[in-house]
Amino acid sequence: MLQIFKNIFSSKPKINIESLASIGVDMHSHLVPGIDDGSKSAEESLKILERMYELGFRKIITTPHTMWGGYDNTPETISNGAQALNQFLEDQNFPLKVEASSEYYSDGHFDELIKTKNLLPFANNHILFELSYMFKPSNLAVTIFDLSVDGYKPILAHPERYNYLFDKDLKEYNKIKDSGAYLQLNLFSLVDAYGPAAKQIAHKLIDADLIDFVGTDIHNTAQLSYLDALLSDPYMDKLLQKDKLLNKTLL
Ligand SMILES: [Fe+2]
Q1: Backbone φ, ψ for residue 122 (5° rounding)
Q2: Does the pTM exceed 0.70?
Q3: Are 114 and 150 in contact (CB under 8 A)?
Q4: Rounded distance from Cα 65 to ligand 1 centre (Å)
Q5: How far apart are CA 91 and CA 251, in angstroms?
Q6: What's the gap in Å between 216 CA and the centre of ligand 1?
Q7: What does the pLDDT profile of the chain (251 residues) look like in tens digits?
């Protein structure tokens, strides 16, 4: 009885699965087992992928870290790992294959990879990259320019997680977009995966229509509860209502 009253008086939106499914493509995750801080096994990746499939995702672009000195991945290590995962998925009769790219950490090694074109882009030359959480990079505009000149389409991962970029007018974010990069929000920022600051910045970026793509950035089965929490999150609802996301262009 109490639960019925709770449901009646709850102001939380109930997002139906069809509406969440309109995202269609997840373009940020860590599901190649054992090559970064993401999934530890093919079985764990399968569990995550099964839930994502139930929620309507129909293309999964997985993006293991390339972070020199931490996760020394190359297009070969990532492609080989993804191939083995896809074989496992096929053996288990899972209906999708994952597509593999990377989340590049922006540093001197990344600059070198851009110069030598030794990158693993996804869906018509998109490149996902991330920044330090601590320090504002001095050459961000140059990196974005270099990627664009080479025909890549740069996407900055989880802009809401770099507190140093934030000011009330969102000047830095507008600058980044003006210099030619897209912005990718982590959906789990909306449901408190990274604390109150990331959530607040995420809300402001959504309100200002600065978000181009969304991704789960899912690493493990423990994070599956965040996927379910999204179904009753007001800003998830708001973002879907705006209907401006570009994820489906990656199909
Ligand atoms: Fe990530």
Answers
A1: -130, 155
A2: yes
A3: yes
A4: 7
A5: 24
A6: 8
A7: 555 555 555 567 889 888 999 999 999 999 999 999 999 999 999 999 999 999 999 999 999 999 999 999 999 999 999 999 999 999 999 999 999 999 999 999 999 999 999 999 999 999 999 999 999 999 999 999 999 999 999 999 999 999 999 999 999 999 999 999 999 999 999 999 999 999 999 999 999 999 999 999 999 999 999 999 999 999 999 999 999 999 999 99
The single residue listed with the structure tokens 């090559």 is 35
Q: How far is the CA of 171 from the centre of ligand 1 (A)?
A: 24
83 Cα: distance to centroid of ligand 1 (angstroms) = 20
Q: Which domains does the chain have, with CATH numbers?
A: 2-250 (3.20.20.140)
Sequence-distant (6+) residues with CB within 8 A of 69 are: none
Q: Could you give the strand order of the β-sheet that contains 182-186, starting from the edge strand earlier in sequence? A: 65-66, 103-105, 126-130, 153-157, 182-186, 213-215
